[in-house]
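Need Thioredoxin reductase's 3D structure for a figure. Predict it.
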Amino acid sequence: MFDVMIIGGGPSGLSAALVLGRARRSVLVIDNEQARNFVVQSSHGFLTRDAISPKELRHLAKKELKKYKTVQFCQGTARNLQQSHSNFLVEVGNLEFSAKKVIVASGLKEQLPNINGLKDLYGKYVFSCPYCDGWEFRDQKLTVIGNGNKLIEYVKLIRQWSKEIVLLTGGPRTFTSKDYEELTHRRIPIMEEEISGFSRERNDLQITLSNGVVITCDAAFLLKTNAIQHLILPEQLQVKLKKNGSYETSLHGQTIQKGLYIIGDAAKRFTGLVGAASEGYEAGVHVNKELVDEEW
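Structure prediction for Thioredoxin reductase:
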């Protein structure tokens, strides 16, 4: 029996493990090494670790955690989350683990459009987060891919890094006439043909449209990656998804099930490295306080 099981070994889960391990809590971190950000070459925005690769960040974090005998690791995919009396049970392969508390920090996974070449180039030359990858392509030729009522705000954001933008809607535009006027007023080309493929030629990203036109740029930013929950374990305990695909939580990541917490992208859709680590710290402190009160 562990004090806490943490499902997910990213910045939020490992940060929670560090706090709880140092609080002398027995902790089990379950992770399947299939992180959402493993497709990118470097991560940004984390002080002292800017431009580190996601895998190296995890390696360093786990190396630090190994100093604490209170923290253990299990590689695999957590399945079948159940509540038995006041404790939780989780299956990993043929193993079963129990704990007083569970923190789900399993994040999201992308469901990219089924377009030839996109999956291979995503994270290298096609991105979704300008705060993560915009700096490296500042003042270069960028293509924005998206449609709908949220597009205008995304384009405004991307223009902070480069004014040289082409907009691909992937089909007939669905944003308002007002948004169209704002975009054309700023001389942003808009192309409504479907996208048939992505490729890398020499030093350029090439995006081929259904009419045969090829857009050449340095990088592309995708409004929607259709990300979904990496794991659906909380639903097994009646924790509902909100309309945006994140789980319903309250303060500190608490759910309707006492002792079950959800943090990071699984709860907020996007937190970034620093935000995720912060949520892990906060949840770890609160979970320890809850255990302290129960043991008093």
